[in-house]
Structure formats: C-alpha cells, structure tokens
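Workshop exercise sheet. Pairs work together: one partner reads the sequence aloud, the other fills in the structure field after running the prediction. Swap roles for the next sheet.
Pair: D.N. / O.F.
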Amino acid sequence: MRRLRCSKTMRDLVRETRLHASDLIYPIFIEESIDAPTPIASMPGVSRQTERSAGSVLAEARREGLRAAILFGVSHHKDGTGSDSMKPGGLLSRMVERAKDAAPDMLIIADLCFCEYTDHGHCGPLDARGNVDNDATLDNLRRQAVVAAEAGADVLAPSGMMDGMVAAIRGALDESGFEHIPVLSYASKFASGFYGPFREAAGCSLGKGSDRKTYQLDPANARQALREAALDETEGADMLMVKPGLPYLDILARLRATTDLPLCVYQVSGEYAMIKFAAQAGAIDERAAMTESLLAFRRAGADMIVSYYAREAIKLID
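Structure field:
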C-alpha cells in the first residue's frame, strides 16, 4: 500500500476526494443600522458587515473565486412575528438586492427563517402556550419566500425545521411565477450545542430556560433525521442540508446512500470556533485541521459546504 503514498505527485494522482471552489458557500452576517463592520468575539476573523460593506466583501470573495454565498440578517426591527423580513424594503429584501448588485454572477442564497427577526428569538410566532405556531409560521414563510425571490435571490434555504415548510414555500414560489428558484432545505437540522457563536453573531439567542428542541432534531435520533429529509424531498426540495457537520457525518453518509438529491453540509459556528481557538492555543495546526474537516464532508457525501473558512480555504485550492 505504501507504494501509492511514496511522493506528493503519487498521492495527488490517486487521491479519491477533492475540494473545488464550486463546493464552497460563504456565509455572511449583515447588520442594519451600523456604521462599520463589527468583529464577532466568539468567531475570530468573522465580522458583522454593514449593508454597504457587505457588497464590497461579496464582490471581493467572488474575485477570489467563490461562487456562492448565504446571507443572514441582523435586524434592529424585531417583533413577535418577524414582520420586517416579510415586506419589500425590509432587511431581507435589501440585503439580497445589494448582494446581487455587488456580485451579479454570484449565487445568492437567502436563509429563510424568523429567529433573526423576532424579539423572542424563536423561528416563528408563538402560540398562547409559548410554543412556535407551526401553521402560522408556514403562512409567514410563504410571504418571506416571495419577498426574497422578488429581491433577486437565486436559492431559498428554509432553516426553521417547520413541518411542511418546503411544500409551503414551493407552492408560494410556483404561484408567484418563481418556478425556476430552487429550494435548499435545512432538512436534518439538530438542536445542537454548536450554534452558540452564530446566535451571538445573528442576535437570536433565546431567553434563559428556553430552547428549540420542540422543532429541531434530537441529536440522538438518526432515523428521524432521515425521515425528515425524505419528507422534504417528497415536498419538492431541490437540495438537502445536514447541520451541524462534523458531529453528524454519519447522517450525511446515510443520507447520501438514500437520496440522489444534491447534499449540503453546514460547518457551523461552533465547529469553526473550536478549530480557531485550538489553533490560537497552539494545540493544532489550523490549516491542516481546516482542510481535513472540509475533506471529511466531501468524503462523507456532501456536494457543497457552507463554511466560515470558505475564503481561507479557496486560497489553498489548486
């Protein structure tokens, strides 16, 4: 076996898994009503961008070779339903329009959820018992989807794990003349402990004693994750996502064996922060750990990867 590992040239020749620029999706936080980018302490190297600076960052990322980005708004106009994200001229609409203006040939993915836009931080309006009202959220997702499509989004990515969300969005798009826009569903999204830095970055942390376990997947349940993905595929999803990444490589691999749809994986904020802080402490080599983790996603079956390392990784791609 060592004969095929004897030199870099030989290793390159027989390499089974490769990382390409087209595999990477760059996530970006866009905060309204701020004058300058704001560094995120728990995510070294990542900042909340202003509405103006986000365009420059996306244009630069496109020049570097990145071809896709996913947008997350940080709203200063929150209410109980996240209404700002459902109206033309709201933050969601503005940031999609500006992203397309700045990088017209970049694939712009709009994250569809309400946690960044609600004053309670949940992914939809609450019912009288304080639980997310699933059916009311579906109605709101329909409106949110059309607003994002009208603003120019190339892909819509619902992330709230509402039952029936793909069918609701697909129906709204088709009825509004946006049959051409694909849906990338967060189909297997777990109630994970690895989201902490994201929630700081997006301003969507919940109050003490509250969580999202009633609608996000139990980390112990693999079969349930596969059922969720199968339901979304039946409802018309064009692509499926597993989130987080490294702790759920088994889900990604099992899903790859059961579907022919393109698969996406999200290397979430906590995964990124672990590598960053371990590297800062001198415990690991950051470049090696970053590359190994991204290759693990591809090896397990991912066709595309959302990663805060996207801009760093693309510089290493030959």
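Discussion prompt: The chain has a mean pLDDT of 96. What would you look at next?
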